[in-house]
Write a structure and sequence with these properties.
The protein has about 250 residues and is of the alpha+beta class. The chain has five helices and 14 strands.
Length: about 250
């Protein structure tokens, strides 16, 4: 019996000694990439020809992007989990909420396809819902980064995470293993020129590793006239104003 108790004590002591090393992120290990090829530049309006150079994931991982610059709003969908691998551009050219263009780029076949009736493929209601889902991080019909507005609402409860930014706020999330290092940042501001809104994920802690998402900025809006972007930013500012010390 004494031997069993002694063995149990040793086992517990060993577990406690090694557990932090097994679970803590090793900051000396470089951030792992999730992209096989291609890149996305958030502040440049994505055009048809740009579909050729957008990210192709290392794994069969879907993604979704909301990009809204001035009166042009794009949703970019990467379908890689099943079927023929493709990247889809859904574009509203003039800020009226209607879909004006749907272009498909088939990655392996290296060919384009265009929907003859874009507004039939995606109604204005469906287009708005996709924008809302990307902003909220809701996965179902689209597969955005899951860190959406609810993460912001969790973070701004602690004023240490909040800084004043233009007419709105910058909210940051830090690595628990290295509080000086940002995992993600969220910025939102409103002006006469439109809405500025950006969600940027630098990496996700995965055991001892740090893994970059396929798309770092799944939401990027600059001087956006899009109704969903404007309403989202207005609401976030109002909410943060009630809590923020600024």
């Amino acid at each position: 019996m004494k031997y069993k108790i002694f063995s149990l004590i040793c086992a517990v002591a060993f577990f406690c000694a090694v557990s932090p090393q097994l679970t803590a992120v090793d900051m000396n290990i470089p951030i792992q990439k999730s992209v096989a090829k291609g890149q996305y530049i958030p502040d440049i309006d994505v055009t048809i020809k740009d579909l050729r150079s957008l990210p192709v994931p290392l794994a069969n991982e879907n993604y979704a992007i909301l990009q809204s610059i001035d009166t042009v709003t794009n949703i970019i969908i990467g379908n890689f989990a099943s079927g023929e691998r493709e990247i889809i551009l859904i574009k509203d050219k003039n800020g009226d909420g209607e879909v004006d263009l749907v272009a498909h780029w088939f990655v392996d076949g290296e060919k384009f396809k265009f929907d003859a009736s874009p507004s039939t493929s995606y109604s204005s209601a469906a287009f708005a819902k996709m924008k809302e889902d990307i902003i909220s991080g809701t996965r179902g019909t689209v597969f955005p980064n899951p860190d959406g507005v609810e993460v912001i609402r969790m973070l701004y409860q602690n004023s240490d995470n909040v800084q004043k930014w233009r007419t709105g706020y910058l909210v940051t999330r830090h690595d628990p293993d290295n509080p000086a290092r940002e995992i993600s940042r969220y910025s939102y501001s409103l002006s006469a020129d439109g809405a500025d809104l950006a969600f940027e994920i630098f990496y996700y802690p995965r055991g001892t590793n740090r893994v970059s998402p396929v798309i770092n900025q799944s939401v990027y809006c600059k001087k956006s006239k899009d109704k969903v972007a404007l309403e989202t930013v207005k609401k976030l500012i109002e909410e943060t104003n009630r809590i923020s010390p600024f």
